Amino acid sequence: MRWVMNCWEILGLEPTSDKKKIKRAYAAKLKTINVEDEAIAFQKLKEAFDSAIFLAGTIIESGRPIEKTTTIAAIEAADEEPPNDIEQKVELKTSKLEHEKTQQTVQNNEEITFEQDSFERKENNQSITKPEIITQSQTNNVEHFDHKLAALYDEMAFFSEVEKWTLLFSDDLEWSIDEHGDISDIMKGFLLANYRVLSKQVIEYIGEFFDFDSLIKDYKSGDYFCYTWAAIKQVPSFSFDIYQNIQLEQRIAYFTDRYELFHLFDNGLPDQALWQERLNSCHAVTTKDQDVINLQIAHLLMNDFRLEQEHTVSSLNELFAEVLALNETNTSGFFRTYYEWVKNEGSANAVLIYDKSEVTIPTTTIDLLTGYVYFRLKRHSRVKECWAELAKKDPALFQSKELAMLQVMEPTQGPLKREKGVGRNIWAVCLILFALFKIGNSLFRLEERNSYTTPSDIQSFVSGESESKASYFIDEVSDLKESENLYDQFLYYFFINREDTDRDTFVEEHLVGKAKEQAKQMVVSELPKITIESKYDFYSSPDNVSEYGFVTALNLLDEEEPFIILQETNDEKIENVYGEGWELLPQDKFEELWADIQVRPIMSQKFFVVYYLLSDERDQNLKDHSEYVTDNVKQLLEKNSEIPKADEFEGGTWQISQDDEDKLYTIINDEKHDHRYILSYDTYGRLEHIYGENWEKLDANKTKLIYDKAEEEVGVY
Questions:
Q1: CA contacts within 13 A on the Cβ side of 610
Q2: What is the DSSP letter of 408?
Q3: Which of 36, 297, 481, 563 is the most buried (most CB within 10 A)?
Q4: Cβ neighbours of 530 (radius 10 Å)
Q5: Burial of 535 (0-12, 13-18, 19+ CB in 10 A)
């Protein structure tokens, strides 16, 4: 078996359970490496250290040196006839693993990271339990499993067929609790060494069988594997069907090279030398792998995503033909959709709404291509969302005008469209407005809705400037007409100043489709009378909604539902207007659309505190309003639904915070101002994680960081 990395040889150590020796060897080797100039050598050393630390808990020290001259014949004999002496078995197995690993050179571009200082703290924790496998008390079930796993590995057909793994675990009912733990540890070591060559489906099956997700929650266990499992699960959704066309001895190296090709994109455009080296290694084995062809397409587009070079276009067409000759995939379909848009043969919307959940495309490539669509549509905020981090990693990808757009300040006269849950300023504004309007008890009262009015506007409003109502109104009307926000202008022309002769020009320039047709045919004076005397009399809720795309709901402050919902095209033109006097959606459709628009972190947080922790009707509330939580959190809430009503949060507070990657969190405090929960949210504003006692666990270092970055407490939910 070759399922353990050659970590001991890299560290210059014999296999040992002494972690201090491993750390001293790592420190000594580290001094010989220039980390900045020898990134790959450092990565291999770091990986060797991580593996050795994990494997240290699986080794039984024999008290005598392990002979390095153990012959392969002896190793093979050991597989055929397991030795009675368990220590001899360990040394023979280890020697075989080391010998086989040295037969292939696999450089790893690992995405799993491990902070040594964090491990040091866990190392000093006396309550840490170390995994122990292959012990004197081990029964034949563990030995039998070990040999079955070895046989499965040697077949070189274990990559993606879940049925083979189901068969491997078929006698699990015969395992004792201790045996299950030993076999679980064996599989941890196997995954650490081989996750790069396993399909996502197999990894998920193994993880579910041994409940590895529970290790993430139980971070205090000291189990190193718990820090890597979350990253292991994020392998690309590669297909492994091609393994049957690859020679047995080449399969591991091939799939490893393919995995590394994917992760060369992590920081932007891959290093050309490394890219070519890995690609040549793959092509030396086969040129008929759709996933590798798609990575070649990604590489071409990362070099020239604007398709300005003839070589790029001709190469893309050749690669598209290769994919079609094999079989069109979801990934190549996305690339083709993007290509057609750039060549003005397809729509921008087709690229933006394309289902990318199953594509095997590096995130950097998706961000680059999607960002370019938004750049051409001049959607500044969306460009920033896609390109900001990528520009930090690899600014050479962008032209000066593109980098300039990343520096453009957002307009301060009104709200901008943002995806749910991604704007820190939105939260700050929510905080102020919540205090202003004294949030009521009903979940869907308007005072609880998000407002996108800018802080400067609110400050001016609260300061109580001593202007007359008439002059103030004139200024506000002028602001709305001249606003950069399309909905402000729409309100002005159709609900505030219906006599303005510029309305026809506005309709011609900014309305299309059904909205334009209705606007030209309607008698504007017959539209419902809406009292709007200033921009503070209404608020907007922009959002990106499935089936509708970009929409903006407009609410009066004293009404629970919006009076108008505007639907925009990708080039920021109003194509539909939903509301009285315009297009009337069926009531259930209108309510469904409005409910989707409202799913934001501020409401998801309120749902958890007010309608779960403080409620006697948790099950019904969760059933009625499950849109505020992800499926995983829903299961967690259902599991904990019997916990006592948490009256200590009746007078509690909450705080905004972030981590080093600017991910948004809120801290929930009880009435004594003690931190009790940390909430995080997905891109749609739904509760994604609930960290706290008897809930999910969060790394102590990250917890401290979030607490340190917390802003002022807010006492209104």
A1: 20
A2: P
A3: 297
A4: 18
A5: buried
| Per-residue model confidence as pLDDT tens digits over 450-498 | 333 333 332 333 333 333 333 334 445 567 888 778 888 998 899 888 8
Residue type (1 letter), 621:
N
Query: Which of 56, 57, 96 has the alpha carbon at shortest distance from 76?
Result: 96
CB 477 within 8 A of CB 492: yes
Mean pLDDT estimate for the chain = 75
252 Cβ contact partners less than 8 Å away, ≥ 6 residues apart: 2, 104, 106, 156, 197
Tell me the C-alpha distance between 278 and 108, whole Å.
11
Going by C-alpha positions, the residue among 129, 232, 135 that lies closest to residue 183 is: 135
H or E stretch at 657: strand 653-658
Q: Is the pLDDT of residue 72 over 90?
A: no
Tell me the CB-side half-sphere exposure of residue 525, using CA atoms within 13 A.
Answer: 1
693: burial class by Cβ within 10 Å (0-12, 13-18, 19+)?
A: exposed
First-to-last alpha carbon distance for the chain, in angstroms, is: 57
* Distances from the Cα of 680 to the Cα of 88, 602, 605, angstroms: 50, 11, 9
The label of the residue with tokens 């504007």 reads 524
E strand or H helix at 366: helix 363-377
Residue 557: how many CA atoms within 13 Å on its side-chain side? 17
Q: Which ranges of 304-362 would DSSP assign to H, the alpha helix?
A: 310-326, 330-342, 348-352
Beta carbons of 469 and 534 less than 8 angstroms apart = no
Say how many CA atoms lie within 13 Å of 454 toward its Cβ. Answer: 12
Q: How far apart are CA 132 and CA 135, in angstroms?
A: 7
| Amino acid identity, position 435 | A
Query: Quick check: 134 and 86 in contact, CB under 8 A?
Result: yes
CA proximity to 429, closest of 462, 461, 410, 456: 456
**At 417, which amino acid appears?**
K
In contact, 662 and 424? CB cutoff 8 Å: yes
At 550-591, the pLDDT tens digits run 888 888 866 778 999 999 988 889 999 999 899 998 988 888
Instruction: 42-48: list long-range contacts, CB under 8 Å, 24+ apart.
Output: 43/107, 43/108, 43/109, 43/110, 44/10, 44/107, 44/108, 45/10, 45/11, 46/110, 46/114, 47/5, 47/7, 47/108, 47/110, 48/5, 48/6, 48/7, 48/8, 48/10, 48/11
Residue range 125-160, pLDDT digits in tens: 332 233 334 443 445 888 889 888 989 998 898 998
The token pair at 350 is 């087709």
Cβ pair 307, 320 in contact under 8 A? no
CA distance 227 to 565: 45
Question: For residue 240, which of 160, 325, 158 has the smallest C-alpha distance?
Answer: 160
pTM score: 0.45
CA dihedral sign of residues 96, 231, 160, 146: positive
Q: Closest Cα to residue 335, out of 307, 377, 375? A: 307
Q: Can you read off the two tokens belonging to residue 405?
A: 């757009």
Judged on CB neighbours under 10 Å (0-12, 13-18, 19+), 592 is middle
Task: Give the C-alpha separation, 177 to 186, whole Å.
Answer: 14
The pLDDT of residue 328 is: 81
CA distances from 106 to 15, 262, 274 (A): 21, 15, 12
Higher-pLDDT residue of 214, 317: 317
CB 290 within 8 A of CB 239: yes
| Model pLDDT, residue 422 | 38
Sequence letter at residue 180? H
**According to the model, what pLDDT value does residue 565 have?**
94
Tell me how many degrees the CA angle 355-358-359 measures, rounded to the nearest 5: 85
Q: Which two tokens stand for residue 38?
A: 């020898």
Separation of alpha carbons 653 and 717, rounded Å: 8
Q: Name residue, tokens 């102020």.
A: 432
